[in-house]
Structures are given as structure tokens and as C-alpha cells.
Amino acid sequence: MTLIDRYRGRLPVTSRTPIVSLGEGNTPLIRADRLAKAAGLRPGSVHLKFEGTNPTGSFKDRGMTVAMSKALEEGSRGVLCASTGNTAASASAYAAKAGLRCVVFLPRGAVALGKLMQAIMHGAEIVEVAGNFDAALKAALRIAAEQDFTVVNSSNPFRIEGQKTAAFEVAEVLGRAPDFQFMPVGNAGNITAYWKGYKELGGARTHMMGFQAAGAAPLVLGHMVRDPKTVATAIRIGDPYSKASALAARDESGGMIGSVTDGQILAAYRFLAHEEGVFCEPASAAGVAGLLKLARAGRKPRGTVVCVLTGHGLKDPDTAARFAPRRRAFTPGRRFEL
What we know:
By secondary structure, this protein is an alpha/beta fold.
């Protein structure tokens, strides 16, 4: 069953909507007792929603199945997006499945290798923008409007509709919505979508805890960051499109949007791989870094905690290579001490 079929009654589709699916959704909610211990919380209280198991390796696929299905239904000429990598990978894959032309605007030299290779292999037309993601998005929105392409960034409301289904899955596994949800915040569409999903379940009890990288934290600083910098390329965004709805999610849920350093992000990234067996991309670890930061400051959350991991670690092999251990040589026939 596709994601759209599973949640058809909660999505803006009809019997006339052609479903474009790659088998997205139904991602695991992994119990994380070592993380709970590190945060000083009780066993069984912390879980990881690992969106890296989606078809293209990130949460973007949830929204893309709905956005691409609606674009096909509406007879679009093609789809266009700006991206730090994950949206490009997802859009190009779903466009290939739909038989639609896909054009992606990427900030020059700022996209992780794994994501770029996905877009290339799925046949996307790549436009390198001299500037950061924010410049790429402005260009994409303008050109799409001029040439009648469908934009499949989170500015497209169908993306938000698809992404909210992750909240439904979390609640189904836990038996209710969590008390706290920690997650990264970049362009801010995902925190918007989760909050929409939890509200539609009839309960507004989940505190939404979003975290940006310290070098790209416009929602924390209260103003646009003109030159965002962080190792977490997926959230290297200085002017989030969905900032208003993200701040509303924070305020309505009694949550917060804070920041974590690159050092804290990388420490959490390595901890998850070493201690929980979960390899996520650096940006995904921002929410976990935020949980540990608050816990160490004496601000431990109470109740059930879900940390959203937005993408797979293989998206960014260059960062993982920084942590490669020293290699030992072995000559057959010689004694080797373990």
C-alpha cells in the first residue's frame, strides 16, 4: 500500500489523482536507550524516527509523493526546485517515476556528494547558482512562475501535506503523540508539517523542539543570516521559507527553537552511529545534539521523546570520512594481536 493510499482520507487527493510512489513512508521508530542514558532519561523514553530509510534516503520523499502526484494530475510541464541536496535527490527520482522533466537549482559547491550523485543519476537538469540556498530558492520560484513549472520545495503545500504523515506514524507506534519531539530546522517545512500532523490527530500536547546550526540560525537570532555556515549542509539556510509557520508551531506547542554548534552536531552524529547503530547525515543529528545540550544544562524533558533523523548518513560520505580510524596492516602467516 502506498503512503497516499494509507492516509488517503487525510490527504488532498481524489480518485482522479495519479499516484506517483516509490514505496515511501513506514520508516522505523527505533528505541534508543543509550541516548536516553546519555541524556539522563529513563530507558524506553527516547526513540529515533529514522527517515533515512525512505527510497531516496530522506524525509523529502513523503512530501514528494503527494507533490509529484498533484503535479501530474494538473498537467504540469515539469517540476523545479532549489535544494541543498535532499530535495534535489527526491524530486529527480519522483520526476523520473512520473515521466516529468526535473530542473534543480543548487548552490555552487555546497551540496554533499551523495545527494548530487542521486540527482545526476535520476536525470535531473542541474543549474548551479552563484550564491547560497536562499539565492537558489528565489531564482527557482521566479523562473518557475515565468515558465509554468511546478515548484516542489516546501513552499508547495502538497509537500507539507505528505510530510505530516510522519506524525501519524509516530503516534501509531507509540499509541499516542510523544510528549517532546526534537528535530533539525533548516527551511522549516518539516517542523511545520509534523505540528500540522499532530494537531490533526486531535491533540496539541507534543512540544516541538527545533534546532538550527549555530552558524545558520535565523529563527534563533530573529533575522536573516546572509552567509550561513555549518558542516550540516542540509540546514545551511539563512532565510527559511516556512519561518512563520515554524515559529507558530513552536509557540502553539509550548516548544522552542534553539541552536547547536557544529561540534555538538558532529558529536551527536558520531554517538548515534557508535552507540545506537544508526548512521544519519550530520544535519539529522541537530535535534539529538539539542536534546543532549538541554539535558546537560539541567533542562531534561519529561515523558516520551522522539528525535527525528531526517536523512541517511550515506548522503554525505565526505563528513563520515573524517572519522575513519587508523588502518592496521596484516600479512598472512604472521601473528596478529587483536
